[in-house]
Design a protein that fits this description.
Number of domains: 1
Number of strands: 6
Strand content: 25-35%
Order of helices and strands: HHEEEEEEHH
Oligomer: single chain
CATH superfamily: Jelly Rolls
CATH class: Mainly Beta
Distance between the termini: 40 Å
Length: 154
């Protein structure tokens, strides 16, 4: 990961829908747990099967999520841009990544490492619970969307 020397500011959270429920005070509490990372187009952010050690919010750029089929063919299953979250399951479980993520345009990401999230939970338990609740909402929305797509196949 290419961590830059950019200091995380409250403005970095403004254009990310995930953080709209958090107050200005809560955003200030969250800031120190995040880092900014920049990636060039074509960079593989993580591979399917990698250990999930962080989650990312897209500040700039685009990412593709790819899944390998039984025949080893890579299929793009989702595309994400500014304001989206990727790798969120890494905060919940310690299972290997379920898909790969590739940068498709130069990107700047707001990154939360699992270790930092554990520290956040210890320092601000109520804030951590609120954060978890938002992650659960996103996972639920994505599961519903996937179930809808799956039902269209049959």
């Amino acid at each position: 990961m290419n961590d830059s020397e950019i200091k995380v500011q409250p403005e970095h959270f403004q254009d990310i829908p995930f953080f709209r429920i958090f107050s200005a005070e809560q955003i200030e509490q969250l800031q120190p747990y995040f880092k900014i990372a920049s990636y060039a187009e074509t960079t593989v952010l993580f591979d399917e099967g990698d250990r999930g050690a962080y989650t990312c919010f897209i500040l700039e750029g685009t990412l593709e999520i790819r899944k390998e089929s039984v025949s080893s063919k890579q299929t793009v299953i989702a595309k994400f841009g500014r304001g989206s979250i990727v790798g969120e399951m890494a905060l919940i479980d310690e299972y290997p990544r379920s898909a790969s993520a590739k940068v498709t345009a130069n990107s700047k990401l707001l990154v939360l490492h699992n270790k930092s999230f554990v520290e956040l939970l210890a320092d601000y338990p109520n804030l951590g619970i609120l954060f978890f609740k938002e992650i659960a909402k996103i996972l639920s929305q994505r599961l519903r969307r996937t179930a809808g797509r799956f039902s269209d196949i049959f």
